[in-house]
Amino acid sequence: MSTASPSRRTLLAATGAAAAAVGLPALSACGGSAASGSGGAAKSAKTKLPVYAPGKTATPDIAGQLGGVDPVYLRYPANPVKSVASAPGDGKPISVLTETWTTPMPSGSSNQYLAELNKRLGSTLDMTVTQDVGDGYLGKFNSIIAGGQIPELVWFPPNQGLQKVPQLLQAKFHDLTPYLSGSAVKKYPNLAGLPTYSWKTSVIDGKIAGVTVTQGHLGQVYVVNADFWKPVGGATFTSADDFFNKCKELLDAKRKKYVLEPFYPNAVHMFGEWYGAPNGWRNEGGKLTANYETDEYLAAIEFAVKCRQANLFWPDVNVADASTKVQGGQQLGAYVEAQPSALVATPNLSWPADVIIPFPAHAGAKVHFDLNYGSIGFTAISNQVDKARIPTLLNVMNYLAAPFGTEEHLFLHFGIEGRDWARTKDGDVKSTAQGQSEAVTTYSPVGTFTQGPSATYAPGAPARAKHTYQVEKQLAAMAWSNPVNGLYSDTYTNKGAELSTTMSTLLVDVVAGRKKISDWKAGVKTWRSQGGDAMRHEYEQALAKA
Amino acid sequence: MAQSAAPRASRPPLRVRFRRDRTLLFLCLPGVLYFVLFCYIPLAGNIVAFQDYAPFLGFSGSPWTGMTNFVQLMQQADFWSAVVNTLEIAAIQLVLYFPAPIALALLLNSLVSERVKKSIQTVVYLPHFLSWVVVVAMFQQVLGGAGTLTGFLENHGLQTGNIMADPSLFKLLITSQSIWKDTGWGTIIFLASIASVPTDLYESAAMDGAGPWRRIWHVTLPGIRPVIIMLLIMRLGDVLTVGFEQIILQRDAVGADASEVIDTYVYYHGVINGDWGMSTAAGLMKGIIGFALILSANKLAHRFGESGIYR
Fold this sequence. Notes:
Chain A is an alpha+beta fold. Helices cover 37% and strands 12% of the residues of chain A.
């Protein structure tokens, strides 16, 4: 159900197992000396998060578990409830900076979904939409900030390396704490229905900086096409060697048949789970070890090098359509998705998609599945917006955060009945071709800046929904979270993004064979001296207090 | 660029000259406006190099740091690696890429049939209009690890490896891409200047028994020498600009060590990592070096008796 998935290209942090990225909470970093925001961590820890008060919607067919397996709906409820009484907008346009994860939406008057959305909101959404190519959102974000024409609503992703976020928020955005903290959020019932774990990313320097963009808590997975793996008996493995051998058997470079997508940081994250590398940090009685420093992580890198040497990765790292190649079932065996819920994404229903359940790399390996931190950032309100208008904008986001089983949700995800979707014989929702090209593409950038809590639902494919539930259950059973999740570190706030970018660049160089394992070890030392040790210290202190 | 050959004393007064040249001056206006708006006014932005600049604080709100940015820049190993890469690519391009249009222009000029010449010209101009995204994608389709040529060679027992992902070949690769894309376009100016070489010179050379090669060497090349020198000087001012989009598109495949140049360094540290001050310092230094190169190349041209681009 999540149409908005964090960028695969621009790293994993949000999906946040934060494989390479260490530490998690608060965003950002600054590339220079200005280390303001010092002391903010202490304030953040005390900030009162919005209360959690989920609204009443349809009962799921299979109950979920907050922060774990998503609730499952086998068909869309026949009579969705209305969660917002009247159009929340004030008739004036609302400018937004956001990103899309699909092809661009149709422009102009042909896009009736957008026209209808504007009508239902009572305000025109004037979205600046960036695509996930090249430097994508970060490049756009930085140029817009530098240009000074800041849109009214700006999405702040936590994993794309935005800098000086605390100072930027201070200078250019409203503090939303008075509107959202504690039970104040109840004025916006759908926002109050967003899970508490998601809100933690919205807190910067002791203030609630924006409305959280929630997502499920289950992180990155290898998505496969079951047909591709049939010759070796399916995509289940007993050890890293078993995986390696099966991949080699499937590899047929002469026919341009490769096995793994060539985005190395994601691959190392997946391998790391099999070897038992920590999710960001390992906590042993209050003492923290970063995943970079562990033997397990090193083993994962070495395994990636071995795979690269054996030609298992697609040979051109700039491959733009890895997911399409996997869908086709002939050219590529696996690519990394941000979440297992990708299995019920509409474009993936037409082919035998599945995920690789993590397995122990060798006897004795402590295999785990990494939880992400349940949010792809937050959406802040520019301080050029009149204070009196803030509640209006929050009401608009309240509409967009409508949960599954509401009229608003049904419209947002599937569009206009009769045009974008139709009821099947047994009353389920089925997207039309129009809906695929209009509703799906237009909702993607909307869902990136606000969406409702995650739920599993595969329109017209209840079997896939059930399978996804089974997969999520297996993953949740071996899941662990980053021990510093929800804790705050000033060093992380100021330098985290820069440090993790450096480390992931180094990681790519090592896996590609341009640098040696010894360079990695030296890099870890530099990482420690440039902020890694400081983060550890700050997190350990925060852990002791928690 | 104005050539005022007339001695100073005999110049008519400014008012008279203005009246005489007003049409020309008026025609210059849009061009001058362009340079003022997009080149000279933005120069003021270079003060960022002396600040710890944050866009949302603005020029006045950002703290002054004196020369700190320059000092820090000098201490960055990756900046020096970018400088070295830039110089290497510049040298390779100067040797391989700069003469290519001259050679092609001579070749085109030697064609007798106007029709063949025109159609070849049209074909060689075309790649210039493709964007780098397309050019790089095409190279990848042919030379990449999953490319056509690579696959063909492998099927015939020749292991070429992945040319697009080999850091040691990167500089040659991007130069060959530049040659493929822009050689044809570069011939325009040379063809024009070849056309202006008086034909009677060729005739008399032929009468004296000079074959085609000798005619090129003794007539054509000397005839277009001023243009070559002028373009060379202008190229020198630009020599540190070795390609931006082209390099960014292929950076992931070979890593930053082999591919980072000053321009991409400025982009990644400034726009992407937000260190505007230090990266502006890097850009400013590049500008100053380019300026110095133009001045000295022009001086050198005067030494050799050419007029260069100005006197």
